[in-house]
Amino acid sequence: MLLFLCGFAQEKINQNTYFDFDMDQLNENQKNVLFDFFQKIDSSQIQSVRVFGYCDDRGTAPYNYNLSDRRVRTIEKLLLSIGLNPKKLIALEGKGRILVNKDTIPDLDKARSLNRRVEIAVALLAKPLFFMGIPRLYSGFNLPHKKGDRIYLENVQFSTGSSYLDLKSRAILEKIIVFLKANPYIEFEIQGHVCCTPYYFSDAIDKDTKERKLSYNRAKAVYRYLVMRKINPSRMTFSGHGNKSPLGKAVELDRRVELVITKC
Predict the structure, then answer these.
(1) Mean pLDDT (whole number) for 118-127
(2) Sign of CA pseudo-dihedral 16, 121, 42, 228
(3) In sequence order, which ranges of 40-188 are alpha helices (DSSP H)?
(4) Which residues 6+ apart lie within 8 Å of 243 measured at CB?
(5) Do strands 89-97 and 46-55 pair parallel, antiparallel, or not at all (unpaired)?
(6) Contact predicate 215/203, CB 8 Å
(7) Which among 70, 49, 39, 48 has a CA at the least distance from the CA of 174?
(8) Which percentage of the chain shows pLDDT scores above 70?
């Protein structure tokens, strides 16, 4: 395995789903919120999931404990229906009602609606900070970043001699797009690289365009996809680096695209 680690970062992310008054089933809008949340997570990276249910302050304590538990079971069924490994569900608990001070809360109805919820806490597996042991080269975004940090697009792959982005690579970019939209202050350069061409050639030939601009065209393909997905083009540039910046590892790893942070 061609991966050398230097430091780890574990990520924990939370999502709330909200129930209508006295209901233990989610409405369609909240189901979509839940499904969208998990669709953006790489399921193979989920270490554990904890689910806790709550109710508002109306009704008796025993009734609300039961209702909050039923809400938890609803979420459990939905998570299993989308393929979550049941062994990763390590906590499922209804905690009953959340008491409020009716005299001090300005919007009691809103407070109660927010208390009719299930909290879902997802712990992701520890991720390597440095990719292949190379300082400031990352296999994903790990905030905070500094200018000059490099993000190796590990699973954005091209066929030999091609700059065409396949569906798998686009799916990887979709997750990057979610991050970029949530962090609009980050600016970067997209850098394309190739391997296995003689040193006296500046780049490899793109079999589709017949140009010796393969690394440039790969970077451009990523740039154009990000623009199409509404990433502001003023945040990014792109360039081809041919085979001039090998990683010094396995040569196939040099067929790569990196995002280099220019402002953060």
Answers:
(1) 88
(2) positive
(3) 61-81, 108-115, 167-182
(4) 193, 194, 195, 196, 197, 199, 201, 203, 204, 215, 254
(5) parallel
(6) yes
(7) 39
(8) 95
What is the residue-wise DSSP string for 166-199? -HHHHHHHHHHHHHHHH-TT-EEEEEE---SS-T
E-only strand ranges, 85-226: 89-97, 117-124, 127-128, 137-138, 150-152, 187-192
Count the neighbouring beta carbons within 10 Å of the beta carbon of residue 40: 12
The predicted-structure confidence for 51-81, as pLDDT tens digits, reads as follows 999 999 999 999 999 999 999 999 999 999 9
- Say how many CA atoms lie within 13 Å of 15 toward its Cβ: 18
The residue whose two tokens read 């962090």 is 183
- Look at the pTM and tell me if it is higher than 0.70: no
Instruction: Report the run of H or E that residue 214 belongs to, with start and end.
Output: helix 214-228
Place of tokens 């900070």: 129
Contact between 260 and 136 (Cβ < 8 Å): no
Q: What is the pLDDT of residues 208-258, one digit of tens each?
A: 899 999 999 999 999 999 999 999 999 999 999 988 888 888 777 888 899
